[in-house]
Amino acid sequence: MDHNLTIRRLGFPDVPAIGLPFYPRSCGVNRFFGRREENEPDDIVEICWVVRGSCVFETGDAAYPVQENQSIYRLPGEKRIKIPAPDRETVIYWAAFDGPGAAAFLLSYGYPRGALDSGKCPVHLFDEIRHSLNSLLPGDLRRMVALYTELIGLMGEERDPQSSSGRIFRDALGLIHSGYQNPALNVNMLAETLGVHRTSLDRLFLRELSIPPGQYLMKIRLHHALSLLSCTALPVSEIAAHTGFVRPNYFGRVFRGTMGCSPREYRRRRMQGI
């Protein structure tokens, strides 16, 4: 059975009134078994990452087989057809962006056309993009551009997913995304749980994501706090507790330092559409 989940940016098709190198447009997940999907040419750049199964992508005048743990992109004006393998479920995560600088931004990475050996799909980045597309606040839009940039960078990693460092990195991400609510979770606990030295963990995150693990953990906690502020009426103190902050006042300081406003002010702006 086919299942497609697509989230488009708030206010689509209008372009946000803020200068950015490109504009986050849409993100989704394709789950299908044998049935092809065809899209007419559109003024977008699209990234597709095969999580399970395999698929032939007809992009422009060429056809590219793409296997599990490979990614591919299409450029504005190109027709795109997905032909999944007929004998097993295919799962594809994808994200699209537009704007006059979109194609040039992606092409600046120098990736060849066709399938890229990208490694394990960073599902958490696609999920963060999908959950953030319901905001037009300048800070949220800039944060989404950063998520897309991280995603594009990972497309060209070509790292061995079975290597020791690859397994440690994936396990560290899993611990962060499953345990961010625990206020005791920090870099020392991560290193101890994974059986590595903290310095080694720092180097691994800096190599893979260009940020240290403590900063990445804080980023995940703030991302979930933003979602709770936007989508629930929970008191700020409860949101702080739900996202791993020991004290509400510390949560407020970190939030203001990152977003430029207090959690309550952020919620008020979201409610007023500012």
Q: How would you characterize the overall build of this protein?
A:
- This protein has a six-stranded antiparallel sheet. A four-stranded antiparallel sheet has the order 3-8-5-6, with no helix packed on it.
- With 274 residues, the chain is α+β, with helices and mostly antiparallel strands.
- It is built from ten helices and ten strands.
- It is 43% helix and 22% strand.
Mean pLDDT: 87
Largest sheet: 6 strands, antiparallel
With helices defined by DSSP (H or I, 4 residues minimum), what is the helix count? 10
- The portion of residues forming beta strands comes to 15-25%
Distance between the termini: 40 Å
What's the total count of β strands? 10
Low-confidence stretches: none
Q: What's the helical proportion of residues?
A: 40-55%
Radius of gyration: 19 Å
SSE pattern: EEEEEEEEEHEHHHHHHHHH
Give the overall shape: globular
Going by helix content, strand content and strand pairing, the class is alpha+beta
Subunit organisation of the chains: single chain
Q: What strand line-up does the widest sheet have?
A: 1-2-9-4-7-10
How are the secondary structure elements laid out?
Blueprint: E1 3-8, E2 23-32, E3 37-39, E4 45-52, E5 54-59, E6 62-67, E7 70-74, E8 80-84, E9 90-98, H1 102-107, E10 116-117, H2 123-132, H3 138-155, H4 164-179, H5 187-194, H6 198-209, H7 213-231, H8 236-242, H9 248-259, H10 263-272
Antiparallel strand pairs: 1-2, 2-9, 3-8, 4-7, 4-9, 5-6, 5-8, 7-10
Offer a few descriptive terms.
274 residues; alpha+beta; 6-stranded antiparallel β-sheet; 4-stranded antiparallel β-sheet; 10 strands; single chain; 22% strand
